[in-house]
Amino acid sequence: MPVIIWLNGGFGAGKTTLAEELSRRLPDAVVYDPEDVGLMLWKWLPPDGDFQHLPSWRELVVATALSLRRHHADTLIVPMSLIRDAYRAEILGGLADAGEEVLHVFLAVDASVLRERLNARVTQPGREWDQAAREFGMTGVDEMVAAAARQPGGTLLLRSDRLTPAELADQVLAAAGPRLRRRGIVVMGILPDPAADQFLVSQRTEPPRRQRLHPARRVARADPRRQRLADRR
Question: CA-CA distance, 141 to 130, in Å (whole number)?
Fold first, then answer.
């Protein structure tokens, strides 16, 4: 079953770094940054604050994710902050309603660490958006930290100020492991970690649905009676 790995958390929480590490281990995955959708909209609309407030942005984020996942990759890695509960529910709910399986990861960080990371972030000359994002991130640090306690059931909650990017990737891939193995995807450089369940926010579990295979992917099972006849010959 295909999976969308959504990396949530505040600005400076380490979403992009983790996405790069996951991409290294899942070379066939597509990294999709919804920020590019917002920048695209701002080419046609006057920039006005946070583009997440635009209904068109939220609709296009879902539509683009579905198109990329269905046509280009079984695994989608999405590093994007969804701090407002309503926007998170709209986007992740839209993906789930379309039949997609989403592993929602939230990177929690102490406020002091977030501020330190944002202050150390280097902005490129001529890229006003870099500077604006840095300033916007600084004003919302407390809100981003508080959002960790409001994540829905099933969220993989990880402390990115206590784990290295490699350790974070271990936990994410351990949680996504059953989904990846069902599709025969090879993960580079990771062993399953049974302790990863301790990081999962409690949720109601449901019995797994039986997966229907495309006829071309079905593997014929050997008939033991035919094998015994062949052995006698």
Answer: 17
Beta strand extents in 32-165 (DSSP E only): 75-79, 101-108, 156-159
- Asked if pLDDT for residue 197 goes beyond 60, the answer is no
pTM equals: 0.72
Q: Which fold has domain 3-232?
A: Rossmann fold (3.40.50)
- State how far the Cα of 67 lies from the Cα of 118, in Å rounded to an integer: 33
Neighbours of 231 (CB within 10 A): 7
3 state DSSP class of 89: helix
Q: What is the DSSP string of 111-125?
A: HHHHHHHHHHPPPPT
Whole-angstrom CA distances from 144 to 123, 151, 162, 185, 191 are 21, 11, 17, 33, 31
